Amino acid sequence: MQSVTIGKNQAGQRLDKFLHKYLPLAGSGFLYKMLRKKNITLNGKKAQGSEILALNDEVCCFFSKETFEKFSGRPAEEGCQEQKNGEYPLSGRTKLLLKDYSAAFERLQGIRVLYEDDDFVFLDKPAGVLTQKAAAGDLSVNEWLIGYLLKNTPGFAKELETFRPGVCNRLDRNTSGIVLCGKSLEGLQYLGKCIKEHRMRKLYRTICVGKIEGPMTLEGFLHKEDADNRVTVRQWSASGKTMGTPSGRGPSSKEPSKGEYSPICTVCRPLKATHDYTLAEVELVTGKSHQIRAHLASIGHPLIGDAKYGRESVNRRMREEYGLRNQLLHACEVQFPEEESGAGSRLGGMTVSSPCPEAFLQVQAGLGLDRI
């Protein structure tokens, strides 16, 4: 028999989802068959798989050593010993991943911890670092986070068999600033829900082309072209029709088809402006890929340094005068809602801030948009 006592990072999820992590090489058909035959039990009783696990629940598998080893990927001799709090021998796959996590923590430079508690880690990401892997060989903030926890949390490696901390909001590679990470299952669930329900305020700083005279709320529809990783924005006019954008796709009065375009809302507030440039604070009301970059470009105010949506003549000047080779966009502030209970209660009303990088401030000063 193999047994595991449910810890905080396994509690709160369905039994069948936990079993897929505990026995990653087993198929769904096999797991449900074992549940029906009571070869897998929950607290000594027959289970369906849909039960929500609670702290200190006991899951038992009445398998032979060979069967356990086959479906868990862990040594059968050790796997048959009773385990506590989700701690059991590491599978070969997890051991291999430990190398990626350690490499990311050692090689990715400039990532700072802004805030940490038992459920959350909030990081400050420099431009040029991926938030999540884009290809198999990439190293990203996601791997750096686990490498950081492995180095600073004794015994954390054994959590990785059934739980992975992770990044909850994605920034473009060349966007700097705040990355929100869940350190526990409860933390991940809270941040995911908060982002999905748009319950937190996410503020950015950028410098865009042209003078923006006053605050504006931009509404429209966004469509992503997977082939070239580019998005198209259609503005929503007062007449209730969508208008064309400067993206080269031409004007259109056709209302977007459901599922073809996602509604977006972006709030832009100028902080200081010259005739040619505006230092702006931008708030994402929705949060879609490339939203700020494409939305501002669609109204004639592209971000400086933006190779995908910007103006080449402006970008060339920025490269020559300031060495700027990426869009100047920084996720500078996140404001959390008030919460009465749960992991989020510690964040209730909290504001997490990240100052603009020195390279941003140098361009800002050089363009006459002095610090405010």
List the helices and strands and how they pair.
Blueprint: E1 2-5, H1 15-22, H2 28-36, E2 40-42, E3 45-46, E4 58-61, H3 65-72, H4 76-79, H5 92-107, E5 112-116, E6 120-125, H6 141-152, E7 166-167, E8 176-182, H7 185-196, E9 201-209, E10 216-225, E11 230-236, E12 242-243, E13 262-273, E14 277-284, H8 291-298, H9 312-322, E15 329-335, E16 351-353, H10 358-366
Parallel strand pairs: 8-15
Antiparallel strand pairs: 1-4, 2-3, 2-4, 5-6, 6-8, 7-8, 9-14, 9-15, 10-11, 10-13, 11-12, 13-14, 15-16
How would you characterize this protein structure?
The chain has ten helices and 16 strands. It is elongated and about 75 Å long. It has three domains: 2-89, Roll (Structural Genomics Hypothetical 15.5 Kd Protein In mrcA-pckA Intergenic Region, Chain A); 93-197, Pseudouridine synthase (2-Layer Sandwich), CATH 3.30.2350; 203-366, Pseudouridine synthase (2-Layer Sandwich). Residues 77-88 and 237-254 have low confidence and may be disordered. β11 and β12 form a beta hairpin. Helix content is 26%, strand content 24%. By secondary structure, it is an alpha+beta fold. The strands form two sheets. Strands 5, 6, 7, 8, 9, 10, 11, 12, 13, 14, 15 and 16 form a twelve-stranded mixed β-sheet that branches. Strands 1-4-2-3 form a four-stranded antiparallel β-sheet.
